[in-house]
Amino acid sequence: MRASTIIFAIVATTALVSGLVMRNRVAKAGLTITSWFRDPITNFFVGGKFLSQHQYFMAIDVAETHDLARAKLRRAGYKIVVNEGDHLHGQRFKAIIG
After folding, report:
1. What is the pLDDT of residue 4?
2. Can you state the percent helix, strand and coil of the chain, rounding each to 5?
3. 3-state DSSP call for residue 91?
4. Per-residue pLDDT tens digits for 4-56
5. 88 DSSP β-pair partners
6. Residue 95, exposed/middle/buried by CB under 10 A (0-12, 13-18, 19+)?
7. Angstrom distance (rounded) from CA 41 to CA 61
8. Where does residue 2 fall: left (phi above 0), alpha (psi -120 to 50 degrees), or beta otherwise?
């Protein structure tokens, strides 16, 4: 097996595990998760941004839009929280592209 394949597998697994931990924090906070991971095709059809953090286990959407939900997302580790009108969108990092 090539070293690049092994490195990719380690990075992908780390992203998944980290994303699962954060998703569980949000669920334990009592928020209703409406979107988390999206494969590129699903992301395209729901109108997601190119290279959306949803595709890398680093973004989440919740149904609640109140300030307490915003605080819970921040406590769960989502540094950027945006009110999209009908839901809150949390992401771990500022988007570089898109």
Report:
1. 87
2. 45, 15, 40
3. strand
4. 899 989 988 998 999 999 999 999 999 999 999 999 999 999 999 988 999 99
5. 62, 83
6. middle
7. 18
8. beta
The pair of structure tokens assigned to 80 is 């950027």
> Which residue is it, tokens 């890398």?
56
29's CB contacts (< 8 A; 6+ apart) are: 72, 73, 75, 76
Burial 40-78 (b: 16+ CB within 10 A, else e): eeebeeeebeeebbbbbbbbbbbebeeeebbebbeebeb
User: Position of tokens 């906070």?
Assistant: 29
